[in-house]
Amino acid sequence: MPHPYIPNSAPEVRAEMLRVIGAASVEDLYRPIPSELRFKGRLAIEEAMPEEARLRRHIEGILHQNTPATRVLSFLGAGCYQHEVPAVCDEINRRGEFVTSYAGDTYGDHGRLQALWEFQDLMAELLELDVVTTPNYDWSTAAAMALRSCVMLTEKRRILVPAALLLDRRLVFSDYLGHDVQIDEIPFDDATGLLDLAALEALLGDDVAGVYVEYPNAFGVIDYQAPDVVALAHQHGALAVVGADPTGLGLLAAPGSFGADFAVGDVQPLGMHMSYGGGLSGYLAFHNDPEVLETCPAFIFAKTETLEPGQHGFGYLNFDRTHYVKRGEGSQNGGTTTALWAITAAAYLGLLGPEGLRELGEGLMQRSRYAAERIAGIPGVAGVRFSGPILKEFVITYADHDVAAVDDALRKRGVFGGKDLSVDFPTLGRASLWAVTEVHSKADIDELVEALTEVLA
Amino acid sequence: MTAQFQQARWNEPLLSELGTPGERGYFPAAPEPEIVSSVPNPLDSIPEAFRRTAPPRLPEVAQPQLFRHFMRLSQETMGNDVSIDFGLGTCTMKYSPKVNEHLVRLPEVAGLHPLQHADTVQGILEILWRLEQMLCAISGLERFSLQPPSGSSAVYTNASIVRAYHESRGEGEQRNEMITTIYSHPCDASAAQSAGYKVVTLYPGPNGYAELDALKAAVSDRTAGIIITNPEDTGIYNPHIAEFTRVVHEAGGLCIYDQANANGILGIARAAEAGFDLCHFNMHKTFSSPHNGMGPAMGASGVRADLARFLPAPVVEKRGDHFELDWNRPDSIGKIRSFVGNAQIAVRSYAWILALGPDGIREVAETAVLNANYLAARLREAPGISQPYPTSNTPIEQFRWSFEDLKERTGIGSSDISRNLSDYGLQPVFTSHHPYIVPEPITPEPPESFSKADIDTFADAVIDVARRAETDPESVLTGPHRNACRRIDAAALDDPERWVPSSRSQRSRSVVKGD
Questions:
Q1: By CA distance, what is A224's nearest residue in B?
Q2: Above 0.95 for ipTM, yes or no?
Q3: Is A349 on the interface with B (CB under 8 A)?
Q4: Closest CA to A253 of A439, A369, A389, A135
Q5: Which domains can be identified in chain B, with CATH numbers?
Q6: Full-prediction pTM beyond 0.95?
Q7: For A17, which residue in chain B has the nearest alpha carbon?
């Protein structure tokens, strides 16, 4: 049977190919597979739908059961954010040449390699660190990879991470590191939401490989003590991994400016749709130190010269350090990650430029502050849980209402309320984490306040 | 060869060099004046020492020039949409149906937040569930997690599950060795190492695959399991695979099947019948999701029923007509990445499998094997090429052959041939993963979406380069000639004193040197 995706289906073509091969049948070509290992039945999967329109209608029918966050008023964040997606970003990352490329090299894929190098180049400026890799899967896996590098570099087996950490991040760390590394949590200050520096000092010792701090943290609080954390880690011979949301870096100090050994975060906010979490892409940056590079298999591209004077060429930077060459000897596991999102983020950073990025960060802080104050004023809201400065997220606690019940009632009014924290952080009480970004207008925030007032009344 | 290919050669400047100070490419929506006037200056809440002192050195460029720059870079990239790229063997570079690209860009996929209430994401959960059912049927295993965002991540997931299994039986410390073969993908070794295992690697015997006796000598009460590809990187199928899994089971280990590339055996042979406890499929290889320039991607991890409790959280459960994310998994290894994974990839692969159905899926495999064997037959015409190991080894979906003879005669080897294919509008041909056991290797893999004429185009080009190696070696050594850039100074990529990962690194180096 011909199929639109399978060109060599005409019997004459197949016969000619078999003739050149010298085989009687395709079945003949499967003789290396012993008959007892052959699957004898017919696969129990849904029957074929080769007509495109019918297939499309079927799948759209399933998908239409979804209510996209972008179609309602959503304040969900906690690691994936609804930001503006410039049309230019969508146009670039739908280009078939990029979308359907893969492991092509210096010559055929010159453009892809240049775009990925440009991502490294612009992110290096933003983070003030010289080496940026092709991004990892997401912020959590980038942080886990950096912390594993700390363990390999220091040959110590204890790391310190904030207690104010998203649950997903905690679970990624516990799998990737927990099997042979002791993970201790640094408490947060109950009033400000900032890291408890005195507690960090007490936890630090000569056995610590790495300390992790992030801004904003899981409560949306900009932990401006990150430079102190880095200094304390270094005093004890530990390395420092600093997480930073890139949307704040037009205004806030860059991780490299205060001595971070590694910087990590997610570039999803830089031009990626949420896609149910499929837009995540975790940047990873460090110093241009060959010893550090040896511990990290993520692809890095290098710019070089060609036979033509003045022409740029690009290629893998020291491919021998990757797991493709080292296999099971002294590196980490790497591979296909999120290159298409890196190309998109490069375009986004180029579009916004230094001024756009500053405006973005300022606008985020203004809106989130406005929304937090408005929500805090609603009867039934106990208040904004932490007093530390915020970028685009904040924690709200209710006096008596159960968070899940409030969210249910809001949903009926077309509002996706903040993420319920009462399960992940039971000590916070009836707490939820709200994200407000540049997609939210004053009218949106006012509408939310009205809906929440009704629900809590 | 007749008409010559010529790739776009724009000699684009770097993005950082575009524009002039003061230009703007995009205005993010500014907050309304009422908001701005009702809150304090945001920077007041940040201690002065934590404010950015100098703006980041990003380009200042208007939109048309920035957009054009990226369009030109796309023209200097040879994806599957524009080139015959099956030279990239082991990657399964097949056609990614365009209708699927339209589906994943619908707001019903792109606009979903991963923490939405289950009632509002029934559609995407249903797709994840339906795809899982299909993968169970294709593998014969019981449950799948779609969370791993790549093939190597899925192998790592499976290695973590094996670790959790042995820990649950009190043998976690004792069973600290993972066996693999040198012709399995390198990530099988690195994933095992990342999961905390000492890696034991088996080398091929005279038939091209590891001998059963070598495996028997390697297993012990320290064996946690085996991670193996079959057909291996070479395209050679190890016919003793069921005995391999039996030997490992008898030693108390589990068997992980690396099926990143299952394109030649879909509906033909399954993990279950060969005795595997775990396997994984790459949705971006066998199951047609585009490779996205190196991700985002998806590796689906499958397990037999009693190992399902170790899968990463959450999994999709169907209760009545309702789909839910089940987070209540006390024995789970944890999480491999945030949320449920790259859900958009699941939409594409579900659509692809559905377009083909049970018979079409099998036809995919049969055609891929036909294509690989046809290409192999054609390449026998190339001067200086040879087939390692017994010629009775019929390739499955790919094959690894050698240009050792050509290299000895002309000084031109497989990397030169590979590079020069760019001059024919083709992607280079993959040589081999490391180490190069087959000398001067090439590893092409023509999936089902390539026509006989496509395969002939590729074969003719390889033959032509190999002939030029004999008649005009200089043109091969300096090639390719008709691409976006000329031959590079590759030594600068590996030299820490010279490599350039960013402009910033160049400035730092100048400071150190006092330039």
A1: B50
A2: yes
A3: yes
A4: A389
A5: 102-355 (3.40.640.10), 357-492 (3.90.1150.10)
A6: yes
A7: B374
